[in-house]
């Protein structure tokens, strides 16, 4: 097929692009764009976490408003990134803040869903026992529900991070920096090497960030939970996967 | 002591889970709540530590209305054990046990030391302390659950079907363990189960609940089996209750008889025992089987000659074992052994029946 | 139409021909005007607004996704021949006709011109900057905001003609709101806008004069794929070019950008009024 | 703001524009959903059947998810040699995402089919293909439908990005509104996207109900 | 007939689930596999319909090596019932039952008709046919499971703990139902359970497995209880085996005695019965309780006067019931009733013991 030969050329061009030192320097260079991209991502993820984690913990712990919350956060997933970002740009009079808010809005649902599901999924018997032993509401939240929610909560956070890394490239459309510039600018002049390089680095950034968060997850998720998950997985007939290992269960979208 | 005074619980959806319950649980005893599913056992239990608040009526613990105490503080004074233990999966066994002491403000060091003590008390190895719950078997988890409930030395212990998730053999071990513990600790224990066998085995008093959360009978197990209050109770306690009731009849007064015996490794020249059955014992005088009347043995009795014995009756235990030993023995003579399993005599079914009849007459 | 053939409307083999536009509103307006004129001339048309930049448009004409797009003579020439010195309208058109790749062709140019222009904020203008020549020596103090592709086309020529090298070239968008906002907020001091843009007067910006013709003449004209249009169709488009003037175009832009009238409606009205 | 919106929608050509883009949006988001599901079922079955395959497939689908959609939209014509404005590009890209998104739910859904039911089917003499089609697949619908709903929402929101590469859909309202700093079309686009997602979601819920009459009968699998 | 010839199954992970099994299951009988968890019962069973292939050895069904038949076709000739029934939740009861006939190419009409027949056979109402499995109780589901397995009239039926998920009362009903069905159908049934009571109740032959998949004993239930092959079997069959063994002793030859009775609604002027116990019967002559010797009754006996009766013994059933009736009765007199629950006489424990002794002597 002709595509084979064409692809060959494209990848040659891509390597040439990557080899050009001009693409690695200055404001438009890959390192700077990657740092900008990382910056937006962290800002958005932290911002979303600051909203979604307390809210998810509250709703999960108190059991109040769960249905409304789940419905709302599902609706938020349907928000089109491009529409949200352009709208907020215009409303915020062109400041970057509008766009960051857009990214935060997109990162909230997965974190919220993960946190809420994590608290909800904590074994009812365990929570009951905690209550029966005389733990107060706060003690139960911090000593039992939060530690048990961590696997799903971190799953939600990882989803959010992946999503924001991808979405932040669309934000280049309203003038933000980041690796999305390579995509959009490359596209305007049909410079496929540039586009491919952009895609490559965004994917790379996503993978790296996910690895870092996975590492963080290993550190903060109590060992006992991992042991428990492994014990479930080992049972030959219990083919059901432990929740803790399936953060994707909360669903993902991308941009 | 725990008192329920005209306690009723109606849930929001209209279900009456407990209906006008009036009973008191004596201090220092194991009281078992038993009954079919949905009859309000759990609800009654949980009203004691205010996990559920009654709709009407009053619950007193040691004479004090529990509504007067702060729920969290009340609960720290009441041990609580549930099915599948409800252990914290994210904490080690030792930290699980130390939970209530830590909540009550003990130092971590002291709480851990206490936890280690309790681990031993419930018969677990000290090395288990560092494991996580998922690394224990079901039975071990239940032991940890009990240890955790005992950690702050609460006078009252609530146990909701604590052993129902483990298999029958382990379960019996746990029941024995609980009885052994209680002999030392003398707690006021309320134990929920839906298994009548467990109830009569463990309880000093048994409360049978019927659907709709009403108390059908509250009595000692022997009384329950011999004298069920009504058809519901009698059908609930099951059809072997006559036989099972023998578990509560002491065997004292039964006279052990003798039978001719031979050692397993003693050489026998020819016919043994003539017209009677002969019991074969090993070096330690533990029964190994019977030789039928007129059996001819040269040298050691061969396996074909040896008829397997029936169940063994340990002297001093309840009549149930004695009757079964007699019924299951090929000779009709139930073999009686001491605590070490050594032969001490035989009994017949006739003796057991006579003793039962005698007791019945005395009671009348 | 049949969405499965969404991109296959290059005309020729029956079915409607597709008219595309670049991703800014003036181009969209022209697209609608062309479409109106062609359909009045009995050609079956459909439209594909906001396809992207010139690079994308040309590519789309070549791979038969599109049949007609509105274009600007100078920039188009620049695109096909970076070295071309032509800058006067007729010169540019003549050069363009030669340089257009085979299969494509440009039709008659209109009088309407919408040139790129370097625009400065009020502040900078206040320092006496009226033309790019004034700006030249000070360029290194300023940040320019322009679309991504500007960087690939103009910096060398700008340096050569005016000795102007900007401190930084910030990528914004194709003379759209990002660029305007950037200039307004001071993120950039110089921006690349179009001379017909209503934002210039609305914000008190000043479009700099271009005495040495950095940007060549920018007459509006249709770029088409030759085989997609017959003579009748070409005549219809030439009639449009004859009717357009810079003033009319600027006025139409204002109705869209400031009064937020609908592009298609504005175009339709223009077509009717001018009996195209 | 409402004035703007009603003025915008007052124009006939705008109505026509919105309607065309809405239809295009539906087409571009639902076609990939159907194709993606069709591809994900055999792949999910592989993952369910072979542990090793599940590692590989889940790895790939996670990796696919790190590629931003914009990049995929742009790269696909290069790789496939399709026309640059062809809506096929968006369809292919979204099909890839949908497949990646659904492989795990399909696998989970098959895994959620009670083991003893499958064993009973085998014991009654079902051959594997027939068992899959008539027993495992119908029983996986409840879990699978949750995954399909997520994928439909995701697709509907992603199609908008296609506006940046010149394919239609409601995204066109965002770019054109944005160019002239006009929020009315943007709001209309956002609202229509949300409504579309909601309607499709309701349809999927309805479809699930039709496919699982036994659940309505008061049972749980 | 099913034969296992030196059959061994080793799983990939090295577990030996079945070790050199040699046994044959007679045609037309119910054979029960029993043993502790993990001893290879299920594995043995599933090798019969090729759900699991043996590592070594041969399984023959009706004399034919099963490796020679196509697995799917083989399975259609072998009914299979498992715990939780394994019903298809997405198909109606009728369609569930019709599964195998449809697979075998019957017309839908014919298969449905057959299914409706079977529904009746297992004692379910025809209206149940339109329901989904989730709308049935556990016991009803199990009946449908059995009906489904019988649909294509297979000569062999494999049942893996079919009744272990339902509660004890329903379970006994299902066991009776199975015995009733088998009396008509005469299938070759292999039945797996880990409940020894169920095994001896249902099985004509019982195979006891021990850990590691070895056959410990293969015998008739009465033999198993009275003559366990070794310590493992005797501890597995449990400590009540003497009493339980009475289930296999017929009661014929036992002589019913009489006792003074009064009707519940008959007016009594004063003292009843003098020194003896009096049995109170209702209008249908069903026993309602006892009046103690010397009880004074005016008018109808009041509830306080009426001592609840013991368990009832249905005349003609095994001795176990007779002994329990006597032991559980406050009077020591076991009440004997006919199949309709009407009073026919009383027996004493003494009579039962005498009868047992007599039988034992005869056997010797
Ligand atoms: N939170 C609640 N809301 C409404 N009804 C409830 C609630 N908790 C329990 N019930 C109902 O109250 C009744 C008694 O429940 P409870 O849990 O006390 O029964 P139980 O005897 O412990 O049964 P089991 O043996 O099944 O544990 C049941 O009918 C149950 O359905
Ligand atoms: N697929 C398998 N892979 C590895 N080991 C297995 C497999 N299936 C069963 N086993 C092991 O083989 C042994 C026998 O299992 P089997 O299921 O036959 O026991 P069982 O007697 O039916 O027990 P239960 O009463 O618990 O049902 C067990 O040790 C079990 O863990
Ligand atoms: Mg309960
Ligand atoms: Mg089994």
Automatic annotation (TrEMBL), chain A:
The keyword Oxidoreductase does not apply. It is found in: Cell membrane; Membrane. It is a multi-pass membrane protein. Signal peptide: none annotated. Residues 38-213 form the ABC transmembrane type-1 domain. It comes from the Bacteria. The chain crosses the membrane at residues 38-60, 67-91, 97-119, 160-183, 195-216. The keyword Transmembrane applies. Keywords: Membrane, Transmembrane, Transmembrane helix, Transport. CDD domains: TM_PBP2. Belongs to the binding-protein-dependent transport system permease family. This is ABC transporter permease. It comes from Allokutzneria oryzae.
TrEMBL record, chains B, E:
Pfam families: ABC_tran (PF00005). Residues 2-237 form the ABC transporter domain. GO terms for molecular function: ATP binding. Keywords: ATP-binding, Nucleotide-binding, Transport. It comes from the Bacteria. Transmembrane segments: none annotated. PROSITE patterns: ABC_TRANSPORTER_1, ABC_TRANSPORTER_2. Belongs to the ABC transporter superfamily. PANTHER family: OSMOPROTECTANT IMPORT ATP-BINDING PROTEIN OSMV. This is ABC transporter ATP-binding protein.
TrEMBL record, chain D:
Keywords: Membrane, Transmembrane, Transmembrane helix, Transport. It is found in: Cell membrane; Membrane. Pfam families: BPD_transp_1. The keyword Transport applies. InterPro entries: ABC_transp_perm/SBD, MetI-like, MetI-like_sf. Belongs to the binding-protein-dependent transport system permease family. PANTHER family: GLYCINE BETAINE/L-PROLINE TRANSPORT SYSTEM PERMEASE PROTEIN PROW (PTHR30177), OSMOPROTECTANT IMPORT PERMEASE PROTEIN OSMW (PTHR30177:SF4). This is ABC transporter permease. It comes from Allokutzneria oryzae.
């Amino acid at each position: 097929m002709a595509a084979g030969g064409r692809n060959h050329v494209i990848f040659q061009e891509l390597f040439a692009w990557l080899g050009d030192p001009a693409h690695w320097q200055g404001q438009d260079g890959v390192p700077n764009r990657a740092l900008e991209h990382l910056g937006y991502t962290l800002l958005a993820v932290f911002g979303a976490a600051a909203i979604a984690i307390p809210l998810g913990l509250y709703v999960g712990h108190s059991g109040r408003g769960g249905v409304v919350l789940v419905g709302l956060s599902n609706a938020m997933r349907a928000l089109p990134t491009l529409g949200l970002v352009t709208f907020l740009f215009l409303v915020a009079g062109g400041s970057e803040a509008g766009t960051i808010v857009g990214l935060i809005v997109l990162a909230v649902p997965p974190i919220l869903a993960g946190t809420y599901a994590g608290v909800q999924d904590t074994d009812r018997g365990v929570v009951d026992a905690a209550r029966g032993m005389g733990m107060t509401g706060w003690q139960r939240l911090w000593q039992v529900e939060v530690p048990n929610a961590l696997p799903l909560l971190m799953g939600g956070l990882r989803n959010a991070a992946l999503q924001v890394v991808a979405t932040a490239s669309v934000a280049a459309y309203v003038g933000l920096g980041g690796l999305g510039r390579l995509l959009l600018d490359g596209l305007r002049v049909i410079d496929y090497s540039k586009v491919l390089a952009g895609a490559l680095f965004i994917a790379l950034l996503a993978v790296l960030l996910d690895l870092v968060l996975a590492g963080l997850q290993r550190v903060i998720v109590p060992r006992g939970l991992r042991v428990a998950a492994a014990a479930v997985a080992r049972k030959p007939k219990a083919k059901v996967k432990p929740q803790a290992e399936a953060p994707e269960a909360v669903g993902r979208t991308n941009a | 002591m725990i008192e329920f005074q005209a306690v009723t619980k109606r849930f929001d959806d209209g279900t009456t889970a407990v209906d006008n319950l009036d009973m008191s649980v004596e201090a220092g005893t194991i009281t078992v709540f038993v009954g079919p599913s949905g009859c309000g056992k759990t609800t009654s239990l949980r009203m004691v530590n205010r996990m559920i608040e009654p709709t009407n009526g009053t619950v007193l613990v040691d004479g004090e209305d529990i509504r007067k105490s702060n729920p969290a503080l009340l609960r720290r004074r009441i041990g609580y054990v549930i099915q599948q233990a409800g252990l914290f999966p994210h904490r080690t066994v030792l930290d699980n046990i130390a939970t209530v002491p830590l909540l009550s403000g003990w130092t971590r060091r002291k709480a851990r030391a206490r936890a280690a003590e309790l681990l031993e008390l419930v018969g677990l190895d000290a090395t288990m302390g560092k494991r996580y719950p998922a690394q224990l078997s079901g039975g071990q988890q239940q032991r940890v659950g009990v240890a955790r409930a005992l950690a702050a030395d609460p006078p009252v212990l609530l146990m909701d079907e604590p052993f129902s998730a483990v298999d029958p053999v382990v379960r019996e071990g746990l029941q024995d363990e609980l009885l052994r513990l209680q002999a030392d600790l003398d707690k006021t224990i309320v134990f929920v189960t839906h298994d009548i066998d467990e109830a009569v085995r463990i309880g000093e008093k048994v409360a049978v609940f019927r659907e709709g959360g009403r108390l059908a009978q509250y009595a000692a197990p022997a009384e329950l089996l011999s004298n069920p209050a009504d058809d519901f109770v009698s059908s609930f306690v099951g059809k072997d209750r006559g036989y099972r009731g023998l578990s509560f009849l002491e065997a004292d007064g039964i006279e052990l008889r003798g039978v001719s015996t031979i050692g397993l490794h003693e050489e026998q020249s020819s016919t043994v025992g003539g017209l009677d059955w002969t019991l074969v014992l090993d070096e330690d005088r533990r029964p190994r089987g019977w030789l039928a009347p007129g059996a001819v043995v040269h040298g050691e009795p061969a396996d074909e000659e040896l008829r397997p014995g029936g169940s063994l009756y340990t002297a001093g235990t309840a009549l149930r074992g004695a009757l079964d030993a007699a019924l299951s023995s090929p000779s009709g003579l139930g073999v009686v052994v001491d605590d070490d399993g050594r032969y001490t005599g035989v009994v017949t079914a006739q003796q057991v029946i006579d003793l039962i009849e005698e007791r019945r007459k005395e009671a009348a | 139409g049949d969405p499965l053939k969404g991109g296959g409307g290059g005309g020729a083999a029956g079915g409607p021909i597709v008219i595309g536009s670049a991703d800014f509103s003036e181009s969209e307006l022209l697209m609608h005007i062309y479409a109106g004129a062609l359909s009045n001339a009995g050609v079956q048309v459909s439209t594909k607004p906001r396809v992207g930049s010139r690079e994308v448009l040309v590519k789309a004409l070549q791979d038969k996704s599109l049949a007609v797009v509105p274009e600007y003579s100078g920039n188009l020439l620049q695109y096909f021949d970076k070295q071309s010195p032509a800058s006067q309208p007729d010169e540019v058109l003549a050069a363009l006709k030669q340089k257009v790749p085979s299969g494509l062709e440009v039709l008659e140019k209109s009088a309407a011109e919408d040139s790129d222009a370097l625009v400065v904020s009020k502040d900078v203008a206040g320092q006496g900057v009226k033309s790019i020549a004034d700006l030249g020596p000070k360029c290194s103090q300023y940040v320019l905001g322009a679309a991504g592709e500007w960087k690939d086309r103009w910096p060398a020529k700008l340096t050569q003609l005016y000795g102007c090298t900007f401190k930084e070239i910030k990528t914004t968008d194709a003379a759209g709101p990002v660029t305007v906002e950037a200039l307004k907020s001071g993120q950039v001091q110089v921006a690349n806008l179009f001379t017909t843009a209503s934002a210039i007067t609305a914000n008190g910006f000043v479009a700099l004069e271009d005495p040495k013709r950095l940007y060549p003449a920018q007459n509006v004209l249709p770029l088409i794929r030759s085989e997609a249009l017959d003579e009748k169709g070409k005549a219809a488009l030439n009639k449009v070019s004859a009717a357009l003037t810079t003033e009319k175009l600027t006025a139409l832009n204002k109705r869209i950008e400031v009064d937020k009238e609908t592009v298609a409606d504005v175009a339709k009205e223009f077509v009717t009024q001018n009996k195209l | 703001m409402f004035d703007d919106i009603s003025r915008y929608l007052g124009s006939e050509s705008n109505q026509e524009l919105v309607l065309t883009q809405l239809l295009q949006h539906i087409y571009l988001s639902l076609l990939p959903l159907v194709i993606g599901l069709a591809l994900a079922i055999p792949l999910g079955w592989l993952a369910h059947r072979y542990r090793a395959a599940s590692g590989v497939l889940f790895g790939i689908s996670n990796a696919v998810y790190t590629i931003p959609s914009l990049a995929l939209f742009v790269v696909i014509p290069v790789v496939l040699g399709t026309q640059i404005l062809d809506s096929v590009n968006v369809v292919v890209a979204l099909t890839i995402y949908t497949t990646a998104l659904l492989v795990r739910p399909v696998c989970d859904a098959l895994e959620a089919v009670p083991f003893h039911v499958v064993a009973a089917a085998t014991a009654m003499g079902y051959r594997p293909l027939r068992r899959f089609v008539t027993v495992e697949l119908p029983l996986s619908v409840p879990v699978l439908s949750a995954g399909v709903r997520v994928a439909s929402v995701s697709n509907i929101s992603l199609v908008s990005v296609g506006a940046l590469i010149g394919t239609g859909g409601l995204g066109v309202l965002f770019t054109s509104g944005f160019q002239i700093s006009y929020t009315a079309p943007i709001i209309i686009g956002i609202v229509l996207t949300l409504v579309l997602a909601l309607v499709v979601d309701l349809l999927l819920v309805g479809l699930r109900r039709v496919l699982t009459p036994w659940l309505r009968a008061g049972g749980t699998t």
